[in-house]
Amino acid sequence: MVFLFRLGSYPRFLDVGSYCRGYWCHRFPPASTTLCRCNMTSSDDVVISISGLRKSYKVYSKNIDRLKEALDPRRRIYHKEFDALKGVGLSIQRGEIVGILGSNGSGKSTLLKIVAGVLRQSAGKVKVNGSVSALLELGAGFNPEQSGLENIYLAGVLRGVPRKAMSKKLDEIVEFADIGEFIHQKTKFYSSGMFARLAFSVSIHVDPDILIIDEALSVGDAAFKRKCFSKLEEFRKSGKTILLVSHSEAAITEMCNRAVLIDRGEVLADGPVKETIACYLKLINAKGEKRKEIRDGIVAGQAISPAASPPKNSTPAAAQPQRAVDAEELFLEGLRPKSTVEYPSEGARLLNVRIETLDGRRVNRLVHGKRYRYVYEIEFHCLSQNVSFGMMIKTTQGTALCGGSYPQKGAWIREVGAGEVRAVTWEFDCLLEEGTYFTNCGVMADREGGRSYLHRILDAYMFQVAPRADRITTAWVNLGLTARYDEKVVT
Ligand SMILES: Nc1ncnc2c1ncn2[C@@H]1O[C@H](COP(=O)(O)OP(=O)(O)OP(=O)(O)O)[C@@H](O)[C@H]1O
Predict the structure, then answer these.
(1) Which N-terminal stretch is annotated as signal sequence (predicted)?
(2) SS3 per residue for 179-200
(3) I want to staple 135 with a disulfide (CB 3.0 to 4.6 A). Which of 49, 112, 216, 395 is the partner?
(4) Which ligand 1 atom sits nearest the alpha carbon of residue 55?
(5) Residue 146 included in any domain
(6) Which residues sit with their C-beta closer than 6 Å to ligand 1?
(7) In CATH, what number is assigned to the domain containing residue 456?
(8) What is the pLDDT of residue 20?
(9) Distance 54 CA to ligand 1 centre (A)
């Protein structure tokens, strides 16, 4: 099924989702704003192909200038051009879940709107192979004077799903949205969370090939987000494609197998989630000249290969064939994190982060079942009061497995003088199974206006846990799992 429609004739509420089947593309200069079927010659696995994409907005310094420009008999120009996208190129394969990161105003929404077909580019080419369902501006796709139920049918119409087919999905949509009696109320009385629930539910249940989500999940409560993520997981497993804009590194880490960093209308990094998030965090935490330096650095190292991305949900090693036991503790020189994010020092610096055996040998290849020390030093640059320290061990996807804060509130270290260096040692049993892990560390103290980090490093240390042959566990952590099979028939 292919829908041809004209952007100029969109009702306002089409913004929230666009839908069309088959190949379509929109290119510059568009003969009209029609989305049309086109012959994509590239591999079938490429579902979104973008090249040289530019978008310029007209910016008027005063509202009246827009009118003046429209009515000026001498056709004088009253606006300035602002380039929101400056030659973006991307190729997205079927089954990829791509996170789009970037600071406010970097061009993420503009990009998604163009891919969804609700905004026209100024130049460049976008090809989309498959049906698209997009959750763009929250609430924008709803007719405020109609009830939630009526809006579900409306959303179906806008996505090309006939009323009969929509009726079949209705119960599921309503159940997933879970907004109770509000489903019968006019949507103008909805909270942003209710809009998010209904919009997400509709978008996911119309069964698109490509789902585009622009921050829509950020307004939902934690339980709803969890529900959405598991639905998206189902969606992903069925080989569909997702484009997700989020300011939440956790959401991108949890969901995506590739991330793209956009800054000032340009793609700065495109590749494995961890590396891209590291670039993003470095960029948003830097200011002025330092920002420029970091930006140039990211651009220079831009070639992060998507192929290098670890497969999403690469399982804890147990699901993979067992290898020989390798119970040797080692320090592997090449095993260093590339994704380290060091926050600016605010009065202290963390140094020498490492894992040691109990007899003081530095290691980064650990053995399951043994006890280790996670150690770092802190150089204090100013008098610091009520000091405490933090640590975390995470999977490659960023899931926290073990975290600590020491000392506890009330027992914080009262004072450490400027120029002093102290060490913190955390001891832990390695209950982790074969795999690669990362650590965080931080130091906090009381500052004007509350408690804050004096220094913090994400992915400060990287380590592996060696494989072992006798395991029956299938996840990251072994809580002492045993099993017994009884030959006796149970009556
Ligand atoms: N209709 C418009 N007219 C003029 N400028 C616009 C328009 N829409 C967006 N812009 C500008 O284009 C730039 C990119 O906007 P966009 O909404 O794509 O950014 P974003 O990365 O999604 O930001 P955020 O994270 O804040 O949602 C911004 O500087 C924004 O002010």
Answers:
(1) none
(2) CHHHHHCEHHHCCHHHHHHHHH
(3) 216
(4) 12
(5) yes
(6) 57, 59, 82, 84, 102, 104-110
(7) 2.70.50.60
(8) 40
(9) 13
Report CA(264)–ligand 1 centroid distance (Å): 10
89-103: per-residue pLDDT in tens? 999 999 899 999 999
- How many angstroms separate the alpha carbon of residue 58 from the centre of ligand 1? 12
Query: Per the confidence metrics, is the pTM higher than 0.80?
Result: no
The confidence score (pLDDT) of residue 243 equals 93
Q: Which atom of ligand 1 is nearest to the CA of 262?
A: 21
Helix (H) or strand (E) holding 400: strand 400-406
Q: Please give the Cα distance from 466 to 366 (Å, whole number).
A: 6
Choosing from 251, 277, 300, the residue where a domain stops is: 300
Judgement on whether residues 256 and 155 belong to the same structural domain of the protein: yes
Distance in Å, CA 262 to ligand 1 centroid: 12
pLDDT, tens only, 345-363: 999 999 999 999 999 999 9
pLDDT, tens digit, 9 for 90 and up, residues 369-398: 999 999 999 999 999 999 999 999 998 878
Among protein residues, the one with the nearest Cα to ligand 1's atom 18 is 107
Domain span at residue 288? 7-300
Phi-psi region of 333 (alpha: psi -120 to 50; beta: other; left: phi over 0): alpha
Q: In the chain, which residues have pLDDT < 50? A: 1-42, 302-326
CA–centroid distance, 104 to ligand 1, in Å, is 8
Strand partners of residue 384: 416
CATH number (domain holding residue 205): 3.40.50.300
Please give the pLDDT value at position 217: 64
Per-residue model confidence as pLDDT tens digits over 391-413 = 999 988 788 999 999 999 999 99
Q: Is 33 helix (H, G, I), strand (E, B) or coil?
A: coil
Ramachandran region, residue 149 (left: φ > 0; alpha: ψ -120 to 50; beta: rest): alpha
ipTM of model:
0.97
- Report which ligand 1 atom has the smallest distance to the Cα of 111: 18
Task: Choose one of 63, 110, 246 to mutate for the ligand 1 pocket test, by most ligand atoms within 8 angstroms of C-beta.
Answer: 110
Q: Distance from the CA of 148 to the center of ligand 1, in angstroms?
A: 29
**53 within some domain:** yes
